[in-house]
Design goal:
The complex is a heterodimer of chains A (280) and B (453). Chain A has helices at residues 5-25, 42-49, 51-85, 89-100, 103-113, 120-127, 139-167, 171-179, 184-212, 216-220, 233-243, 247-271; strands spanning 28-29, 37-38. Chain A has 280 residues and is mainly α. Chain B has two domains: 24-147 and 334-400, D-Maltodextrin-Binding Protein, domain 2; 150-332 and 408-452, 3-Layer(aba) Sandwich (D-Maltodextrin-Binding Protein, domain 2), CATH 3.40.190.10. Classes of the chains: A mainly alpha (280), B alpha/beta (453).
Chain lengths: 280, 453
C-alpha cells in the first residue's frame, strides 16, 4: 500500500480529479475569470449545432486515417527490413532518432523546409522541374502535410515495437513454412502478420489515441488554417478554452472526445482480439 | 522510518496547501518589499525598459522592478493563466485588442483615481492615444506608452529596375475600380519567369518570379497590415460606435468592393495566392521580401527593426495611397501599461506606470529607436534615432499629423469576432467563397455581440 501511495496520489490529483472537474465544468458556463454557472445540457446542445465542431471532428478523423495508415504500413516495412537484413544497433538508433527530437522542434523545422517561397523542399522541386507546392497553405495539402511530418517522427519508434514483436515469433514456424515451400510474400501474409496481431493491436490503440490528440504540430504551424482545414478537435478545444474563455463549452467537447476515444479503443481491442495470440 | 498512510496524506496535503498559498497574490509575500513585477513581450524593447527601471529605482529607492519578457504568443497565455491562478504581474504591457475583455472580466485596475490624485497631464500624449484606454464602461485602464501606424516597405533596387521613382511611390492613388496608380506601379513591379513585367504584353501570371505586392494573411477582423487603409479611404467603418463596436459592417458593399479589388490582384498575378502566402514559416511576408520575392509589403511601424535586419535587400518606406475620399489614412494603434486588478501593491504599481508614461521614461524609449513613443515631446529623439538607422519614417508620421487615422476595432468579444472573421476572410481570399459570404460572416459576428451584450 505504502509503495502505491505516491502513484495513487499522483493519479488522483492529476487524473481523476481533473477528469471529474472537467465533467462538472462541461455542464456550466465558465469564462475562467468568473465563477462557473450551471447551465445543464446547453453546451452539448450547442455542440450539435456548431459547424466548427463537426468540421474539427472531420479534420481530426482525416488526420488519424492518414497518419495511422501510413505510419503502420511504413513501420511494419521498416521492422521487416531490420529483421531480415540487419541486427545493427546503430541502424536501430538512427531509425529512432526523429522520435527523440521534440515535437515542436520537428514541426518548426519542417515548417521552414516546406515554406512555399523560401523552403528548401520547394527549391528542390523547382530545380527538378516540378511546380512548388503550398504544403501548409493549400487546404487540401495541409492535413496530409501535418500527418506526414508526424509519421516521419513516429514511424521509427513504432517500427522498433513491431521489430520486438517479430523477434517473439518462434523460428520454427518459418522453418515449417519454408519446408512447405511457401513464398516470401505468402509467409508474410499468412504467418508474420497474423502472429504480429497482438503487438499491432497494442500499437494501433496507443498510436490512435495519440493521434486523435494531435495539437502541437498544428499549434506551431497552421493554427487551424487555411480557413478551417487544420482546425483539429484538440486545437478547437484549446481555442475555445484559452483564447475565447469558453471553458465550459471546451470541457463539454473534451468529454465527447474522451467518449469517442474510449469507444474506439474498446472496439479495436475487441475486433483485433488483442488478448489472444494465434501461437497457442 | 515507519510512515502511516495518514501521515503521508497529511504531508501531501500540506505540500499542496503550501504551494497554493505561495501561488496567491503573485507570491507577494515571498517577494522583497517594494518589488514590482512587470511583463512585456517585445525582446527588442527589453534593454530600454531595463534602463527605465534603473532610473525609476534611483528616483524611488523604496521600489524595485523585476522585468520578465515572453514572446507575443506565450505572453497572453501566461497572462491569462496568471489572472486565474493569481500569479499575474503587478504591471503589464497591454494591447488595445486584448484589454477590453480583461477589463470586462475585472482583471485590470481602473486608474482614474490615481490620475486625478496626481494630476497627470494627459495632454502630453499624441492626440487620441490616452483615450484609447478608456473602456466601454468609461473608466481608464492604462497610460499610453507607444503607438504604431502602417506604410509600405519597398525593395528600392526592384523599384529602380522598374523605373519607378521615389516621388511616384510617394504620390500613389488608389480606388476600388482600377486600383489607381498604385495598381499600375504594383503591376510594373511584378516580373514573370521570362522577365516580362505585369503591365507588358505576354506577361505570364502563372509563372511569377517577383510579385509586386506581398501579403502575410487575409487580415482577419481588422486587416491592420493588409486591407484596413483601402477600406477606410473607401469610406468604410468597422462598426457602429467606433471603437466600441456594437454592430459590425462587414456586409457593407464598400467593404466587399475593397476586398474584391484586393483579391483581384491575385487573379491578375500581381500578388501570390493565399495558399502561397500562408504556406510556411514566413507569416508576415518579411522573409520572402528579404529574399527579393516581393517588391512591396505593407507593414506596421513596429516591424522597422525586422526589416532593418534584412541584409540582402535595400528597404525603403513609401506612403500609403490616397484613396477615393482624397486622404491617405492609416490605422493607429498603441500599447499601454496596465495594472493587474489582483495586485496587492497598487501604490507601487501606479508609481511605475506613471513613470513609464512620463517624458523622462519615454525619452529613453525614443532614443532606442524601436517604436514611436506616446509622449509627443519625445518624438524628435525617436525620429533622430530612426534616421541614424537609415529610416526616413515620415510615411508613418504623416497620417497622425494630418489626423487621418482610425482606431483598431476594440471589443470585449474580439476573440470571438476574430474566430469568425479569420476563416471567413481566408475563404474569400482563397477564392473558396464569393464576396457575398461576408454578409453571412457579419451576421455571425453581430449575433455574437448581441448574445454577449
Amino acid at each position: 500500500m505504502i509503495f502505491l501511495a505516491p502513484a495513487t496520489l499522483g493519479f488522483v490529483v492529476f487524473y481523476i480529479w481533473p477528469t471529474l472537474r472537467g465533467a462538472y465544468l462541461s455542464f456550466t458556463e465558465y469564462s475562467l475569470l468568473s465563477a462557473p454557472e450551471f447551465n445543464g445540457l446547453d453546451n452539448y446542445d450547442r455542440m450539435l449545432h456548431d459547424s466548427f465542431f463537426w468540421n474539427a471532428l472531420g479534420v481530426t478523423v482525416e488526420y488519424v486515417v492518414i497518419n495511422i495508415g501510413l505510419q503502420t504500413v511504413l513501420a511494419v516495412g521498416i521492422a521487416m527490413l531490420m529483421y531480415r537484413l540487419t541486427q545493427s544497433i546503430t541502424v536501430r538508433a538512427v531509425i529512432l532518432a526523429p522520435y527523440l527530437v521534440a515535437n515542436v522542434v520537428v514541426a518548426l523545422v519542417w515548417y521552414w523546409m516546406l515554406d512555399f517561397q523560401i523552403g528548401i523542399v520547394n527549391q528542390g522541386l523547382t530545380w527538378i522541374g516540378i511546380d512548388p507546392v503550398a504544403f501548409f497553405g493549400d487546404s487540401h495539402w495541409a492535413i496530409p502535410t501535418i500527418a506526414g511530418i508526424n509519421v516521419w517522427r513516429h514511424m521509427g519508434y513504432t517500427a522498433l515495437i513491431v521489430f520486438a514483436g517479430l523477434q517473439m515469433i518462434p523460428k520454427y514456424v518459418y522453418e515449417a513454412a519454408e519446408m512447405d515451400g511457401a513464398s516470401e510474400l505468402k509467409t508474410f501474409w499468412r504467418i508474420t502478420l497474423p502472429l504480429l496481431r497482438p503487438i499491432l493491436a497494442m500499437v494501433l490503440v496507443v498510436t490512435m489515441i495519440g493521434s486523435f490528440q494531435i495539437f502541437d504540430t498544428v499549434a506551431v504551424t497552421t493554427q487551424g488554417g487555411p480557413i478551417n482545414a487544420t482546425r483539429v478537435i484538440y486545437y478547437y478545444i484549446y481555442e475555445r478554452a484559452f483564447t475565447r474563455f469558453d471553458f465550459g463549452y471546451a470541457s463539454a467537447m473534451a468529454m465527447v472526445l474522451f467518449a469517442i476515444l474510449a469507444v474506439v479503443s474498446l472496439l479495436q481491442l475487441r475486433l483485433l482480439r488483442a488478448k489472444e495470440s494465434d501461437l497457442a | 522510518m515507519n510512515l502511516s498512510r495518514r501521515t503521508l496524506l497529511k504531508a501531501g496535503l500540506a505540500g499542496l496547501a503550501a504551494s497554493a498559498v505561495a501561488g496567491c497574490n503573485n507570491g507577494a509575500a515571498d517577494r522583497p518589499a517594494g518589488e514590482i513585477s512587470y511583463w512585456l513581450w517585445d525582446s527588442a524593447q527589453l534593454p530600454m525598459y531595463a534602463e527605465c527601471a534603473k532610473l525609476f529605482q534611483q528616483q524611488n529607492p523604496q521600489y524595485s522592478v523585476k522585468i520578465e519578457q515572453n514572446g507575443w504568443a506565450d505572453y497572453w497565455n501566461k497572462l491569462v493563466t496568471g489572472f486565474i491562478s493569481g500569479t499575474a504581474p503587478d504591471v503589464f504591457t497591454s494591447h488595445s485588442s486584448k484589454y477590453p475583455l480583461f477589463a470586462d472580466k475585472d482583471q485590470v485596475l481602473a486608474i482614474d483615481d490615481f490620475v486625478a490624485q496626481d494630476n497627470v497631464d494627459l495632454g502630453i500624449y499624441q492626440k487620441g492615444l490616452a483615450d484609447r484606454w478608456i473602456g466601454a464602461d468609461g473608466k481608464r485602464y492604462g497610460l499610453p506608452k507607444d503607438w504604431d501606424t502602417e506604410a509600405y516597405f519597398y525593395n528600392s533596387a526592384l523599384a529602380e529596375a522598374a523605373g519607378i521613382s521615389t516621388e511616384q511611390l510617394n504620390s500613389m492613388t488608389w480606388n476600388p475600380q482600377d486600383g489607381g496608380t498604385f495598381e499600375q506601379i504594383v503591376a510594373r513591379l511584378t516580373v514573370d519567369s521570362k522577365g516580362r513585367r505585369g503591365d507588358q504584353s505576354g506577361f505570364d501570371k502563372d509563372n511569377v518570379k517577383v510579385y509586386g505586392l506581398g501579403f502575410g494573411d487575409a487580415g482577419g477582423a481588422d486587416g491592420q497590415t493588409s486591407w484596413s487603409w483601402y477600406a477606410a479611404t473607401n469610406g468604410w467603418k468597422y462598426s457602429e460606435g467606433e471603437p466600441w463596436g456594437t454592430k459590425f459592417f462587414y456586409d457593407d458593399p464598400k467593404f466587399a468592393e475593397t476586398i474584391g479589388w484586393w483579391r483581384g490582384l491575385i487573379t491578375k498575378g500581381y500578388m501570390p495566392t493565399l495558399a502561397q502566402a500562408k504556406s510556411g514559416i514566413d507569416s508576415s511576408a518579411t522573409a520572402a521580401f528579404g529574399a527579393g520575392k516581393y517588391a512591396i509589403t505593407p507593414n506596421g511601424s513596429w516591424m522597422l527593426g525586422t526589416y532593418g535586419q534584412l541584409k540582402q535587400v535595400k528597404t525603403k518606406l513609401a506612403r500609403l495611397p490616397q484613396g477615393p475620399n482624397g486622404k491617405r489614412m492609416s490605422m493607429m494603434n498603441g500599447l499601454a501599461d496596465s495594472i493587474w486588478a489582483g495586485t496587492t501593491r497598487k501604490e507601487a504599481s501606479w508609481a511605475w506606470v506613471k513613470f513609464l508614461g512620463s517624458q523622462q521614461a519615454q525619452d529613453i524609449v525614443a532614443r532606442a529607436g524601436v517604436v514611436f513613443p506616446a509622449v509627443t515631446a519625445s518624438m524628435p529623439a525617436a525620429k533622430a534615432s530612426f534616421a541614424k538607422a537609415g529610416w526616413d519614417v515620415t510615411p508613418f508620421l504623416e497620417p497622425v499629423e494630418a489626423g487621418d487615422v482610425f482606431a483598431f476595432p476594440a471589443n470585449p468579444n474580439a476573440a470571438d469576432v476574430s474566430a469568425v472573421m479569420t476563416p471567413a476572410m481566408e475563404s474569400v481570399m482563397g477564392f473558396q467563397s464569393d464576396l457575398g459570404s461576408l454578409s453571412k460572416a457579419n451576421d455571425d459576428v453581430n449575433q455574437i455581440l448581441a448574445a454577449n451584450s
